Structures are given as C-alpha cells and as structure tokens.
C-alpha cells in the first residue's frame, strides 16, 4: 500500500518584498485507495500545496517532510516524483506548443513506465481512454492544450490520469468550469481509476456537486495555509451551508 505522508509542511514563495510563507504547517496522510477532498477559501494555499508536492520550482520548502512509502519526496526532481507515482492535474493546465497530445502522452508514459509502450497497443489504449471520456479522436493530433476550451483541458488531465496510473493523484479543481455532462464524464474517469484501489486521490474543490459523483472518504478544511479541520463526507455539506467564516476569523487568508 503506497502512502503519501505530509508532515508540518512549510512553503514560501518569492514575493516582491521578500519571501512570503504560504503553507504554514500542513499535515496530511493519503493512502492508496483513499479519496481526500480538500476545500477552503480562495488564496488559502491549496494550489500551493498541489504544486509543492509535484515539485514546482517556484515554491521553496522551508520546513517539514513529505514521504512516499518512506522515500523523501522533497529530495526528488519533478521527473523523479512523476516516476515515483505522483500525478498533478493543474488548476490551470499549460499549453505545450508544438507537441501533440499523442506524443505528449507517449513521452510521459515512456518516462513513467521506464520503456516505450508498444505502438500498436498504445494507440488502442489511447483511443479507448479518449472514447471513455467522450473526447474526439482528433484531439490526439492537436497541440497540448493549445486553443482547448476550459472543459477540454480538464478532460485532457483526466486522460493523462487514466493512462499514467499514478499512485497518488492530486486533482486541483478538475471540476471547475465543467458543464453537467462533462462533470459526470470526468467524475466517471476519476472513479474508474479509483476503483482499481491503486490510487490515493487528493481532490481540491470548491463545490460539493463533484462530491455527489466522487464520494470522499475524508474531507479537510484548508484555511490560512494549513488543514484546520478534518471529517467525513458530511463535513462538505456543512461547509456548503455555513461557509468558512469560523475558520478564517482572526487571520485574513488573502
Ligand atoms: N509568486 C507569488 N507572489 C506572491 N504571492 C503569491 C505568489 N504565488 C502565490 N501567492 C499567494 O499565495 C496564496 C495562496 O495561493 P494559492 O493559489 O495556493 O491559493 P488557492 O487556495 O489555490 O486559491 P484558489 O481557491 O483561488 O485556487 C495567495 O494569496 C497567492 O496570492
Ligand atoms: Mg487554487
């Protein structure tokens, strides 16, 4: 069972007037097979947590530990983290001009599996995965995210998730900007991966509607750079009704 353990994580970014601490002691353990929803106000540091786990160079870890099965994740390069099984679906996926979706996916799969997938089976694998996500096959030949609509970008993230089969999947607002049908299709994709029991999921979201499709085992409230409360699925409903007031009082989050 793969386990991602985050302990007392502190992260800063370089702001105009010097370093600014964004994460202020995050504690979270995610095991393979579990789904954790993280909810919290804008600017509380959720994406910073996601990027820090994936190894984005803009974020400096100033304290704490992150381990995957006891291995020090913070010591790993971005590539090593991906190979170790950490996957990030970004809140704002970036364009990769000049690289087709098909090449991008094959290069990623090669890096992660340690060998190039056999072309014949690979083409079939991609086509089937795209089909399940109701993606037009023509997307395979388009440049990554170039001119993609918001919803198309999110589907492309889930396509990667399905093909790369990570141990830990961090989904940063994969549900935002999706129409009702796309939300269902994307959720079904996440659930297919989840049902293998081989992935631990960190689902960052603002909306309980995705949690109707993807039932979280745990819900965490994120405020002012750390997790301030944890509970079961019922906590999400409570947040929807009551907001974050009681968690942000005393310290502005943004
Ligand atoms: N380079 C930077 N310089 C200054 N502040 C930064 C920088 N990068 C991030 N921040 C700040 O860090 C805080 C946390 O941002 P983050 O994107 O992690 O929030 P979030 O919880 O994901 O919010 P949202 O729900 O809106 O996506 C914000 O106040 C943001 O302005
Ligand atoms: Mg964010």
Automatic annotation (TrEMBL):
Gene3D superfamilies: P-loop containing nucleotide triphosphate hydrolases (3.40.50.300). One of its GO terms (molecular function) is ATP hydrolysis activity. Keywords: ATP-binding, Nucleotide-binding. It comes from the Bacteria. InterPro entries: AAA+_ATPase, ABC_transporter-like_ATP-bd, FeS-cluster_ATPase_SufC, P-loop_NTPase. Residues 4-249 form the ABC transporter domain. It holds the Pfam family ABC_tran. NCBIfam families: sufC. Belongs to the ABC transporter superfamily. Ycf16 family. This is ABC transporter ATP-binding protein. It comes from Streptomyces filamentosus (Streptomyces roseosporus).
